[in-house]
Amino acid sequence: MNPFILIIGAGPAGIGMGILFKQLGIKNFGILERDRIGSSFMQWPKEMRFITPSFTGQGFGALDLNAVSPTTSPAFTLRKERLSGEDYALYLDLLAEHYDLPIREEVNVTSVEKRGDRFVLKTNEGDYEADAVIWATGEFQFPNVRPFPGAEHALHNRYIDSWRKLEKGHYVVIGGYESGMDAAVNLVAYGNEVTVISAQERNGKKEADPSLSLAPYTWERLRIAERTKRLTVIEKTKVEKIYKDNNGYTLFLSNGKQMLTQPQPILATGFRSGAEQIRSLFEWGENGKPKLTVHDESTITPNLFLIGPSVAHDQAIFCFIYKFRQRFAVVAKQLVDRFRLSHDEEIFTHYANNQMYLTDLSCCEVKCEC
After folding, report:
1. Running DSSP on this structure, what letter comes out for residue 164?
2. Could you say which of 200, 249, 256, 289 has the lowest number of CB atoms within 10 Å?
3. Alpha carbon distances (Å) from 143 to 15, 33, 158, 286
4. Per the record's keyword annotation, is Ribonucleoprotein included, yes or no (predicted)?
5. Reduced to 3 states, what is the DSSP secondary structure of residue 143?
6. 76 phi/psi in degrees, rounded to 5
7. Please, are residues 57 and 89 in contact by the beta-carbon 8 Å criterion?
8. CB contact set of 188 (below 8 Å; sequence gap of 6+)
9. What is the pLDDT of residues 53-102, one digit of tens each?
């Protein structure tokens, strides 16, 4: 049997998975990308930077946090520590070329259907068939634009090209996690006044896991913004509704107060899972993430796997590249065993030695004594 495997998405998850297949010696696979390689990163606001720094630590047990394969480092390739979206898209493009990955760009998958043991994927250029599908579409292309009534009147940060282009004013940013604070510090840097409405309390319970707290890079920039006296943060408060009329935008808050703002409010309420495109093929948890087996496979659709930032197991959240890259080998190992694919077993050892093969999820608890 020579099964065909399709990876959907050519971002860090899809590219990383493709590189692993190449290194294993698996040839019968393809990658479909509806836009261009790394297109989500090309759509970041110009000012946005990775909150995870890049540094070439290979050889000393410290893989570059933003690398998607053990022998590459965006810090080495680009000679940069704080990567922009354009930087990272270039890194992914270089990897695709270097490893000669079988990618077809501008192929938009519109539906996926399981027919017997095979998948049929309908696209803008016809049907594709596969024995296994690995969904790697990420989240950035799927902003959470309707978290409450009237949210359509706000502008989601995903649609910002550059914060510099916005007219000067007093902006309200809805959401106090990474994207909200990134919006706030950039708006302040361009001379605006900003009020952030955050459901969380910044200095409340300290969480060591960066998936649950602001990154040090964000804290550093916040302190600079706060010194300008142009940043206000309203904590432990939610926006329940937005009403728009000729006077501007009225925000109804959970504390019973109302706030009128003239510039369009900025919505920084995060993103939804790209797996929602094929929602019926997954079971879904209360956290809005697909339910997965220990091999990151759909619990209801055999041979459908998920990789990337939407992967979650109980308290283990894999939303960062340095986290979700550790699950590529888990999926690959399941596929080579299931389909009895000829492969180089030493590659799995190589990935394990470089902290890119995580099977024991009990070790994912993040604790810091100081």
Report:
1. G
2. 256
3. 22, 19, 7, 18
4. no
5. strand
6. -70, -45
7. no
8. 194, 225, 228, 230, 231
9. 999 998 787 899 999 999 999 999 999 999 999 999 999 999 999 999 99
